[in-house]
Amino acid sequence: MLLDRIQGPEDVKRLSGEELLQLVEELRSEIIRVTARTGGHLASSLGAVELIVALHRVFHSPKDRVLFDVGHQAYAHKLLTGRRDRFETLRQEGGIAGFTKVSESPHDAITVGHASTSLANALGMALARDVRGEDHKIVVVIGDGALTGGMALAALNKIGELGKDMLIILNDNEMSISPNVGALNRYFRSLQVQRWLQDAEERGKRVLEKISPRLYELADRAKEAAKLLVHQENPFYAWRIRYVGPVDGHDLKGLIYLLDHLKDLKGPTLLHIVTKKGHGYKLAEEDPVKWHGVGPFDPKAPPKSGKGYTWSLAFGDALIELAEKDERIFAITPAMREGSGLTEYAERFPDRYVDVGIAEDVAVTTGAGLALAGMRPVVAIYSTFLQRAVDQVIHDVAIENLNVIFAIDRAGLVGADGPTHHGVFDLAILRAVPNLKILAPKDAAELRAMLKAALEVGGPVAIRYPRAKVAPVAPGTWPEIAWGTWEVLKEGSEVMILAFGKTLEYALSAAGEDPRVGVVNARFIKPLDEAMLERLVREGKKILTVEDHQLAGGFGSAVLEALEKMGLGAEVKRLGLPDRFTEQGKIESLHEKAGIGPEGIRRALAEWGLALAPTGRTA
Amino acid sequence: MLLDRIQGPEDVKRLSGEELLQLVEELRSEIIRVTARTGGHLASSLGAVELIVALHRVFHSPKDRVLFDVGHQAYAHKLLTGRRDRFETLRQEGGIAGFTKVSESPHDAITVGHASTSLANALGMALARDVRGEDHKIVVVIGDGALTGGMALAALNKIGELGKDMLIILNDNEMSISPNVGALNRYFRSLQVQRWLQDAEERGKRVLEKISPRLYELADRAKEAAKLLVHQENPFYAWRIRYVGPVDGHDLKGLIYLLDHLKDLKGPTLLHIVTKKGHGYKLAEEDPVKWHGVGPFDPKAPPKSGKGYTWSLAFGDALIELAEKDERIFAITPAMREGSGLTEYAERFPDRYVDVGIAEDVAVTTGAGLALAGMRPVVAIYSTFLQRAVDQVIHDVAIENLNVIFAIDRAGLVGADGPTHHGVFDLAILRAVPNLKILAPKDAAELRAMLKAALEVGGPVAIRYPRAKVAPVAPGTWPEIAWGTWEVLKEGSEVMILAFGKTLEYALSAAGEDPRVGVVNARFIKPLDEAMLERLVREGKKILTVEDHQLAGGFGSAVLEALEKMGLGAEVKRLGLPDRFTEQGKIESLHEKAGIGPEGIRRALAEWGLALAPTGRTA
């Protein structure tokens, strides 16, 4: 295999044109082979193979900085930059990351996972380069979905104003995770349909002459370059960004040719390439949503959609039933329809559903607008992405105590996506926000009870649940829940474990049948069930809190605060995630390492002199 | 006065054309008269008087929803919507807010204070209106600065895609708080210069005919409408937003005429008006930066710039000295050059300074890019605005432990700007973020010591200081600070008060000369000085924490967490802001009400049986 000879980008430069085409095929095979075992962002990475080969052919990483927005399309980049031997460990505990990561390779210019951050990073790098008089190139690869994120647009605005030398490659694959939305995106479509296919040669050459005589000269000779167009009337012109394209992002020779001639242009240039997610792998081309992020799969068959019932689906199903009865229900997602379990809801209630695109801030504040107009919006958002809308929760929703429900999915550690995606800050952030209530259900029935109660109680309510499977419940199941109450699942004579969500099962497992150790479903994180807490303490029980969240400022801290407020001294231990970022790995394994799994709980109990037998048996 | 007869918007509709012009003058006088006493956002509000009169002439608030972005330009709106009798209380404790506020009036469509939120709110309201089949109008007034914020652009993208009926008025006053930045803004300028003044009549009428035959007909007759232009090649076209303008935003008759004919257009329309901040008040027109937000002033004289030395200036002066010695220093502001004390720095080091516009997320991640390139960026940001970049702090800076310093100004209660602007969540949010350190200086010398130490220690460091005066220090003052240490300012035999920043002076005042009560400058919030904490507790001291921050998740919680971790039982009381939003008012008065002023501290001590005499005397 050619790939065996590629130790780094310089080796790509030694290959012949024929060999480059072979390299593309080998990369694609390797990506399919490994992700079939590890799972991963297959479709995006397959779509970017030619682009990445062309980039490493033309540019000189790491001197030149190549920034991949989101960083999930960069598997070929990892394979070409000295990580082939470790590629089998992709997304595994201790292995290489599913995104680009600065600490993993000097060729990874940014550590990333969330969308739309590349341009602001590139702006910073360009400012640094220019003040120091350096001359390396900065190349940004950004998808059409990520480019419509507000942060990317605002950064583009500044880059255009300053006229920083930079090549921005708009990798237009016509969809982010959910089918793409937004007017700009439709505009990209119209550019393609109307312009690309029409008599481009003359116009293209005319504008080429203006921006680069050399490029013009070559374009005059080379057929491929005739596709090139510069639209001065497109929106990038208003941003003072030179626009080139759209061109075929799977035409390797054309890409290399273009990059080679665009690389020395002064000022910001945007090259619009069109690619197909999953390119070269029929199954993925046909259903790129399903193949966006996949678990391990059989390369010959479509990935099974969902392995069992999840919290996301439980939420989506509950919301459908609520929306049937209550016309004020309105669901909002920031480009996460499938992930949030809203696919069926969106089909059933298209008028009461909006996907605002990769714009979490807009999602939350659109919820505020709906609530101000008397609707009952439900913002479905992953915990990690809610971090992108903190001010909107505070400023737009909580100050006026608006009726917005936040369905916070993927709360706690999420596994293979690693530190950029773990949802482990939401409680610390949200607990401080007045008017906001925070709940965490133990099962699908309780999720329903909480959604119903949230609608009744009103104001902003956050309901958090993990990335995990959950047992389905029968349609029509709408149990009641007493607001603000915890639930004793098991009495204990010496210690009560306060846990919620994912850690509840660990607590039950650790406690086993031991009569000394009880377990409480601490499902209300704000308000706490202070009455129960007080009772437990007055009964002389020790309190052990366990949470799938950073220790600093989390649920355990809320318990300490409540005890301080009540002036109650108590023996309390808190288990949670330590003060460092948690790497990728299997969720249960990460939990044990962090000391919040059954073993960690048993160790904590042992420190109090309560030696417990292994799971399920009494000491 | 005509104003005496205006009880609500309907009264505006009864006035004659002459009377409307008089009303504009009266509004302007009233705004100047009252803000001279109360302080406030004078320049923006003066610039929007004609627009607001025209809006209430044409639209029917509150049925029609009029959303003011930021909400600081809406004084005339308050005067016309039943709040004239209370206008004297503007920005005073218990009085009306300096921004629009839903709970204050049905005519205030959104509660606001931060920029760029109006369009997402309007999107939500339009979704609600349309799903219910209602037919009221939605009008958004947004400045050119706020429109270049990412959240506004992303919302615009969705509004354009959905084609929602909505009138967006771009109030282009050529500057936000700092002179405006960004390529889009330059584009707006070019629109004006190139197009407005040239032969507009023919082109304007041609496009008018397309969008509204009735408007065309009128335009054919009315000279004013001839200014009207629709640029299909401008960026709003790509967003599928109909663009009309630019027109003179101080031409009341023209505005009423235009609004009257634009109001029934289907789909989103953007009307670009050009106004002058401070219009009609010479002093403010001449220096709108100084008159953006002013304290009480003499209407006949320019406002005094700064009454004494502030924390902001202390930071700016320190940064200048650091930048002189260290070429890696790079300052970043999100449109807050003056407010952050960076005016002189920006003049001295234009190559190591960037104002990214109203885009806090871009500010933080530009810092990440600079740090990745080896620079030592300092992001100067208000605490309340850092809420808009939480994910960028976590995802772009902290995961890779990048060398970014956050100079967090206006931490704690900020006074007259009220709940949208209080900086009272930063500790809860930032404490949970691994790798991040959090410091709070007691004076300007300690601020310098902390900046220096932050550069030495590396990684992300947040230094928070209040909106307050501080004594200046001599240039060249660079004291050392032992990392992670607190400082005993006064020994106490029974209680030690742990305080920092603003609350330190309250603690000293409360403790007075009483030998039983000591005071510690708890200047390291993360990491805490656990050694000192342990020593104090082992000495049997009671601990009283006092912070200008929400109680939930703040400094006091950090102390409780540390004691739990060390397994130390201690008598602890925490004072901080209660779990509700704090209204506007004088800072010291708000602090006393919240129980964190000297009286509140004395009450807390009294609960421990330590009756203290009034300030400065021993019990």
CATH class (first level) name of the largest domain in chain A: Alpha Beta
Pair with the biggest interface: A-B, 115 and 115 residues
CATH arch. level architecture of the largest domain in chain A: 3-Layer(aba) Sandwich
Q: Major β-sheet of chain A, in short?
A: 7 strands, mixed
| Fraction of residues in H or I helices of chain A | 40-55%
Biggest sheet: strand arrangement of chain A? 7-6-8-9-11-10-15
CATH structural fold name of the largest domain in chain A: Rossmann fold
The Cα radius of gyration of chain A reads 27 Å
Number of domains of chain A: 3
Oligomer: homodimer
**Please, how many helices of chain A?**
26
Q: What would you call the shape of chain A?
A: globular
Structural class of chain A: alpha/beta
